[in-house]
Amino acid sequence: MTRIGQSDLDILPLSLGGNVFGWTADRDTSFAVLDAFHAGGGDFIDTADGYSAWVPGNSGGESETLIGEWLASRKPADVVIATKVSTHPDFRGLSASNVRAAAEASLSRLGVEAIDLYYAHFDDPETPLEETVGAFADLVRDGLVRHVAVSNYTAERIREWISLAQSSGAALPVAVQPHYNLVHRTEVESEIVPVAEEFGLSLVPYYALASGFLTGKYRTPDAAGSSPRAGTAAKLATPAGLALIDALEEVGAAHDASIASTALAWLRRQPTVAAPIASASKPEQVADLLASARLELSDDEVARLSAAAQS
Fold it and tell me: Which of 12, 209, 218, 299 could link 223 by a cystine bridge, Cβ 3.0 to 4.6 Å?
């Protein structure tokens, strides 16, 4: 188990991404994925209030609603729920009134008494950061949120948030959610990781499998077919990208592990990373994700993959 930052949240070091629920996974499939994840020891689920408003016919909140229905149906013990605010069509931005209203709406959809980990999804330059920090602190004070976190914030803005929280006695963030994986590293490792190390924050990276490229499924630029999620992945099928996939395959073979499991295991070994986020549109995909949380790569294997990713 891994603890998230300076919180009391102990989790298996893998987070199940809820972005596909209500999009590429319907209700029955979403339940099957969640069942497989929990049955395999998974206990950390990530979603956002805006998932999946981009789908024609959706209005936002579909993922939270499905997760809430699953929680009500299964009543699983000790599951940690993370969600985010700022992208729901009815609750855009991070003003104090909006943060409060969005949190209450998320709580209703999820059917929980408190959100375990609540992220500011995207920075809001229109709202003074002091107002946002105060709004999150009020949610913690009132018992609607247990712990605060930030997503897609620059290192400078994370430092500013922490400074404001420290000076006002507000709840400090415990986690940062950046875009981070073997093929998207430089900015996170040079800017975000040092801040996380300084303040005891945990990284919970999204796009941990680079939209599926790091599963090894997309080895040609036209391999995406009609998949709504795979276009970005297929574009990474460059000579350098394919050399990385080969290295992942070889390292994984030594552990009888898949390419996806190996890529997630590498990410889990990086400084300050608590739990990579990975999603599954089918229940049969969950086993590889869970395997990554128990796959221990050697230092030499980690170094080999890091070098392959930089070539």
Answer: 218
Residue 232's pLDDT band (cuts 50, 70, 90): confident
User: Residue 51: how many CB atoms within 10 A of its CB?
Assistant: 29
60-to-34, 53, 76, 122 alpha-carbon distances in Å: 20, 4, 25, 16
Query: Angle 46-211-33 (CA atoms, 0-180°, nearest 5)?
Result: 45
With 0.70 as the threshold, say if the pTM is over it.
yes
Query: Residue 187: what residue type?
Result: E
Report the C-alpha gap between 67 and 47 in whole angstroms: 9
Active site (annotated) includes residue 180: no
- pLDDT tens figures, 123-134: 999 999 999 999
Catalytic residue among 51, 119, 206, 207: 51
